[in-house]
Amino acid sequence: MASLPVAAILPELLAALDNSNRVILHAPPGAGKTTWIPLQLLNASWLQGRRILMLEPRRLATRNAARYMARSLGEPVGQTVGYRVRLDNRVGAATRIEVVTEGILTRMLQDDPGLEQIGCILFDEFHERSLPADLGLALSLEVQELLREDLRILVMSATPDVARLHQVLGRATPVIHSQGRAFPVETHYLNHPLRDFDPQTLARELSQIARHESGSLLCFLPGRAEIERTQRALQQQPLPADIMICPLYGGLSVARQEQAIAAPEAGLRKLVLATSIAESSLTIDGVRVVIDTGLSRIPRFNPRTGMSGLTTVAVSKASAEQRRGRAGRQQAGSCYRLWSRERHQGLCEHSDAEINQADLSGLALDLARWGTPVGELLWIDQPPAAAYAQAQALLQQLQALDKSGKITATGTSMLQLGGSPRLAHLMIKARELNMSRLGCDLAALISEMHTLAPHQRNIDLISLLEDWSSLPGQLRELSRRWQQQLNTSPGTRNLNDCGPLLAFAFPDRIAQRRREGSWNYRLRNGRGATFRQHHALCHSPWLVVAELGDQTPDARIDLAAPISLEQIQRHFGDQLDHHTSVQFDESLDKVRACRQTRLGKLLLDESDINPPPDELGAQALLAQIRRKGLSWLQWPLQVQQLCNRIMLLQRHDAGQNWPDSDEAALLASLEQWLLPYCQNIRSARQLRALDYHSMLLNRLPWELQQRLATWAPTHLDVPSGSRIGIDYSDPEQPVLAVRLQELFGLATTPTLAEGRVPLLLHLLSPARRPIQVTQDLAGFWRTTYHDVCKDLKGRYPKHYWPTDPLTAQATSRTKKAMQTGSK
Questions:
Q1: How many CB atoms lie within 10 A of CB 797?
Q2: Would residue 794 be called left, alpha or beta, if left means φ above 0 and alpha means ψ between -120 and 50 degrees?
Q3: 229, 199 in Cβ contact below 8 A?
Q4: Is the overall model pTM greater than 0.85, yes or no?
Q5: What is the pLDDT of residues 594-610, one digit of tens each?
Q6: What are the tens digits of pLDDT across the range 620-640?
C-alpha cells in the first residue's frame, strides 16, 4: 500500500489538515486516494476519536471502497470500516470510517447539524459535481462556519477545478498534488465521429482490440440500451474464445454488478460493457484496456416545460481522463478513444454540474427544512433561479411547502421517508387513504424502473403491478422498507386506485385526451404529450403520466396510468377552479357565457349561461375588437374620415385639445367611448349597427365640433358651384379630386386649417380620369395647362377649353349645355 503514488504526499496532506480545516487533494486515477487516504487519517490528533465520513457518488463504489479498506485491515465490513447505502447498512458501534452515498450526508446533517460524531468529511471524486455532493458541501461549509470550526473537509478529485473550488473554500485553502497514476496508459485515437451511437462499428472495433490486446477490457457506453445493442452486435463478431461479456450499469442486481468487477476465472478474460458507473472510485480486476465511446447520458431538467429527460452528450476532457485511468489501476494499459485527437481538443474541460441541469425539487425541500435561504449558502454553482422557482411551485402543489415557502408537516414527513419528493408524497397520501402497500409498490416500481429487463417493460403501470411477483426482488424489498417506515397497515390494493395515487406524485402531469380517438393529450400545465404508437391507454380520456420522453414538439408518454374524471374531482376537488367564462365565440358570431370547472389548463366541465351577464358580455366584445382591430367593426368610410380629420387638426392646430384618434388610441380607450353603448349588445351584427360617427364626434366639445367643420370640412365649394367631398384617407395629406373645368377662375390651391394645409389636387378629365396631381395650382395654370388643354380639346371636343383658365367661367357642363343653360 505504501507504494501507491499518493503515499508520497501523505506528510504534506497531514500537515495541511493539522493547520487548515479545508483542503483540496488532486490525485489522478489509480493514485490510491479512495482506499488508502482514509486509513491514514485515523490516528490524526484533530480527529479526537471521531468518525471519518467519506462520500461516494455511486452505491457500487461505496460498497467496494469499504470492502477493500476492511480487507486491507483484515476485518469484515462493519467493524473499523463500514458503509451505508439505500437498503443496505453495514455500520457498527466500532466503525471509524463510514463510506456513504452522497445523499446520506444531507440526511445526517438534517438530523444532527453539529455532526458531533464526525471529525472529517471526505468528498471523493468531487469532479463529478452531483447535486447531492454540491448540496452536502454547501451545508457542511455552513456547519463548519457556525458550529464546528474543528470539522475537517477534504475535497478529493482526479480532475479538480481548483479555481472554482477556491472561490468557495477560500483562496488560502491548501491544494495537495499527488504524483501520476500507478501505471502508464498508452492512448490511441480511432478517428470515428462522435455522433449517434453505432453498435455495429463499436462491435467490430472491440473484436479487433480484443484479438490484439491482452488482459480484460472495459468499454464505456452511454446507457443500458446501448449496452444491450452492443451485446447483440458482438454475437456477429469473431471474439477470442477466452472473452466473457459482462454488462455493468445501475439497474443490475448487486450480485451481477459484483460479478462484473470481480477478477475473471483462470484462463478467461472479461469484456465489461459499462456506463459511467465505472468511471471513478472503482477498480475492475484484470482490466488493462479501456475503450471509450466518448458518450454519456445525463438527466436534464427544462424549466420551460417543467420536465426532465435523459440526454446523450459528449464527455468532457476530465471525464475522458477518468475513464482512461481505469486502464492503469493494476498494470500498464491502453486506452482506445473512438474519436480523433483533434476532436478531443474541442471537448469541454469539465462536465457541467448536475445542479445546472437537474430537477431541484429535492434540493428545495432540503433547504426549506434547513432554514438558510438558498442565496446565503456557499455554492460552487448557484442553483438556477428559474429551475429553483419551479421546484418550489411543485413542492407547493405537493403540499410540502406553504405559500410563504416554509416547510409543512407533510414536507417534513416526506423528508423522513426519503426518496424523491414526488414519490414520498404519493406514499404519504396512500397511508392517509389506507392504501400503503399499493402506494409503496407503485413508488418502488417508478423508482427502480430502470432495473426492469426489456421484456418486463410496459407503458401501463397497472399492467406492471399485475405482474408484481415476477419483477426484480429489489423492488419488493424497497416497497417493504417503505411500508415499515410508514408504520401502518398495508391497506387495500385495488389497482384501479393507481391513477389517483400517481397523481399525488405527478399533479402537474394529469392529462386530458384532446379528442376522442386521438393519441394526443394535454397536461395540466398546458404542455402536450402523446403516444408514439397505439396503446390500450389511448382509449383513456384521462391519464396520469409518470415518465415523459423526448419532446418534438409533444413529449412522448413512456409510463402512465388511467384516472377517471370522478377520481380527479374526488381527490383534487380543492384544487379545481370554478369560474364564469365570457368570450366572443367566432363560430356563433356572438358573445357566449359559460360556467367552467378547470384543473390548471384542463377543462373538466362547462355549461352555458343565457343571457350572458351584461358587464362581462360587454367586456368580451371589447376584447374581441382589440384582438381583431377596428376594421372588424366594418364601419362606414365617413367614420374613418372623421378620425383622420381630427388627427389632421391634432397636428396642425396644437393649441386645441384634440383627442388621440388613431387606431391604437381608440382601441386603448374603448371603455371610454364605446362601452357605454354596449349594454344589451351581444352579437357582431348588433355591434356593427351602432352609430360610430356620432359616438366619435360626441367626444368633442361643441366648440371643437364647430372648429372641425370649418378647419377640416368634409366638402369644399369649388368655382363651378359644385360641393366636392375631401378625401382624408391619408391624414397627412388630404385630397380633393375634381374635374379641371370646375376650377377655372381659381388662381391658387385651396387650403385647410386656416391656410396651413394645402390640399393635394387630383385634376380630372370630363370622364373623371386623372390628368394631373399637384399642390401648386397657380404653377399648373402657368406652365402645364396649355399642353394639357391641347390634348383635352382633341379627346373632349364638346367641352369648354378656354385659352385663359383664370378668366374663364368654371363649369361642369359641355359647351352646348352652357349655351342653352341646361345641365
A1: 10
A2: alpha
A3: yes
A4: no
A5: 999 999 999 999 888 88
A6: 999 999 999 999 999 999 999
